[in-house]
Every structure is written in C-alpha cells, then in structure tokens.
C-alpha cells in the first residue's frame, strides 16, 4: 500500500483501521483472471463497449450507481469500508483529546 509522505499522529488510529480494511478487501478480491477475461472480451469484440466491468462487485456497484440515489451509493461505500467507525474514532481523538 502507498503511505503518506508525512503522517499526523492524530490520524494514526484511523489510518490503521482503513489499512486493515483494505487488506481484508484485497484478500477477498477477484483474482487477476477476472480482469484478464474482461480485457480479452474488450480486445476481441467486434463492436467494443465503452466500459467493461470485471467481477461481481464491480457489476453490483455499476447497477447501484445507475439506479440508486448518489447518497445511498456513498453511504453503501462508506459502510463497506467501515468509514463511520474511522470517522467517530478520528473525531473522538481530535475533539476530546
């Protein structure tokens, strides 16, 4: 993972939580074969589409973005990344000291 050039101590707990969640998501992600299949499909299509999705999560997110309000999509992404927990922790650190 990429690391920040300069890290603020106040963000340490939030940074660790987001990093842990990223590691979990990457461990459970679709393999490279899924992306390779989408690339092959795009490369060999007689009439290529503008976009190709690779994997179930990408397909579900595309459907969600098409039919759900933007706020619901943002809330779903935040929930999946567990950002509410990070925000509460960061707020507690900054405000309550």
Q: What is the string of helix and strand elements?
A: HHHHH
How many E-type strands? 0
SS strand fraction: under 5%
How much is the radius of gyration in Å?
A: 18 Å
Mean pLDDT: 84
Shape: elongated
Oligomeric state of the chains? single chain
Helical fraction equals 55-70%
The number of helices is 5
Overview of this protein structure:
By secondary structure, the protein is mostly helical. The protein has a domain at 30-96. The protein contains five helices and no strands. It has helices at 12-27, 32-44, 56-67, 70-81, 83-96. Helix 1 (12-27) packs antiparallel against helix 5 (83-96). It starts with 11 loop residues before the first helix and ends with a helix. The model has no long low-confidence stretch (mean pLDDT 84).
Main features:
single chain; mainly alpha; 97 residues
Give a short overview:
The protein has helices spanning 12-27, 32-44, 56-67, 70-81, 83-96.
Give a topology summary:
Layout: H1 12-27, H2 32-44, H3 56-67, H4 70-81, H5 83-96
Helix pairs in contact: 1-5
């Amino acid at each position: 993972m990429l690391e920040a050039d300069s890290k603020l101590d106040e963000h340490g707990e939030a940074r660790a939580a987001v990093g842990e969640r990223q590691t979990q998501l990457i461990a459970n992600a679709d393999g490279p074969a899924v992306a390779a299949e989408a690339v092959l499909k795009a490369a060999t299509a007689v009439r290529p589409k503008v976009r190709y999705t690779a994997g179930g999560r990408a397909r579900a997110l595309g459907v969600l973005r098409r039919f759900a309000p933007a706020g619901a999509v943002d809330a779903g992404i935040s929930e999946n990344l567990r950002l509410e927990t990070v925000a509460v922790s960061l707020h507690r650190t900054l405000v309550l000291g």
